[in-house]
Amino acid sequence: MAGNHLLPPLKPLPMKDRISMIFVQYGQIDVLDGAFVLIDKTGVRKQIPVGSVACIMLEPGTRISHAAVNLAATVGTLLVWVGESGVRLYSSGQPGGARADRLLYQAKLALDDDLRLKVVRKMYEVRFGEPAPARRSVDQLRGIEGARVRSTYKLLAQQFKVNWQSRNYDRQQWDAADIPNRCLSAATACLYGITEAAVLAAGYAPAVGFIHTGKPLSFVYDIADLYKFETVVPLAFRVAAKSPEAPEREVRLACRDLFRSDKLLGRIIPLIEDVLAAGGIQRPEAPPESVPPAIPNPESDGDVGHRSR
Predict the structure, then answer these.
(1) Residues in Cβ contact with 291 at an 8 Å cutoff, skipping those fewer than 6 apart
(2) Contact yes or no for 163/180 (Cβ under 8 A)
(3) Is residue 177 pLDDT above 70, yes or no?
(4) In the predicted model, what is the mean pLDDT of the chain?
(5) Strand 78-82's sheet: what is its strand order?
(6) Pick from 50, 6, 42: which is nearest to 24 by CA?
(7) Could you tell me if residue 6 is inside a domain?
(8) 28 and 167 inside one domain
């Protein structure tokens, strides 16, 4: 028993060194002999490399112990409780977001109209590969963006020979949507999961958005939109063109492979910092009269938003 104290403390890995996501369904997740394991109804154990995954999607039929949640938080892995096929978000853990300087920096950029516009213009430039039109408000840029997005959907549908009407789905009846919309919903759910994990790991708040507002994941949507149409949207149309029997499963497997081959996890946090830097301000320093931590935080090998113990 005493030998356990000789083991090095668990520390989060940087996002760039992780695999993207794992979906778990029908089983009990627990910590056994120090390992994060899934136990199915027959008692068969399957070990999950929790510290090397960005996020774990927990589907219906999954139970998770207090010890497993604690271990996931310790290693900085986001737990996301989702509906069947991962297309509904019910709740998520929060292993990151532990940096007040970054939260205040993000809030200042979002609250100042001029700074917010600078960030939105940078997002437009990153997304479309060209500077945003001059002398346009955030609302006007959003309108231009919406028109370009609808046009892109039509072009991809033509490219992959998919029958496309519009982006349309009912949150209460996912299965009632056509296959292209089901594929898109599954693909964006995967993208939002790893993007939320990256936003938290970078020390920022998922809810404080610049284009999207009023949602718990507004900033996640802002960031995911920057690379959505070069990654998961073409993938979704490509899968839809095959008319698979289980489109959500096909999309999830394809997303996992795409995220790995595209090294997407290594790109998200630098992109977040680049976009916010367009505001042209520095992150705030702690006030001179503020009280520093009585016990300094230990150094972590993870990203700045990961909590260290």
Answers:
(1) none
(2) yes
(3) yes
(4) 86
(5) 19-24, 53-58, 78-82, 89-92
(6) 50
(7) no
(8) no
pLDDT given at position 2? 44
Residue 84 structural domain:
11-92
Query: pLDDT tens for residues 24-68?
Result: 888 899 998 888 999 988 888 889 988 899 889 888 889 999 999
- Let me know how many helices (H) and strands (E) the chain has, helices first: 9, 8
Amino acid in position 204: Y
The identity of residue 287, as a single letter, is P
Give 150's contacts (C-beta < 8 A, 6+ positions apart). Answer: 166, 167
57 touches 38 (CB < 8 A) = no
Structure tokens at 120: 């939105």
Which residue in the block uniquely carries the two structure tokens 């520390």?
Answer: 11
Q: Which 8-state DSSP code applies to residue 173?
A: B
Q: Domain check: are 121 and 189 in the same one? A: yes
Question: Do both 107 and 79 map to the same domain?
Answer: no
Integer Cα distance of 85 and 249 in angstroms? 7
78 inside domain: yes
pTM listed for this prediction: 0.83
82 strand-pairing partners: 89
How many Å apart are CA 122 and CA 140, to the nearest integer?
A: 15
Please state the separation of Cα 4 from the chain's center in Å: 34
Closest Cα partner for 194 from 115, 258, 101, 286? 258
Question: How do residues 191-235 score in pLDDT, each as one tens digit?
Answer: 999 999 899 888 899 999 999 999 989 999 999 999 999 999 999
H or E element that contains 92: strand 89-92
Indicate the number of domains in the chain.
Answer: 2
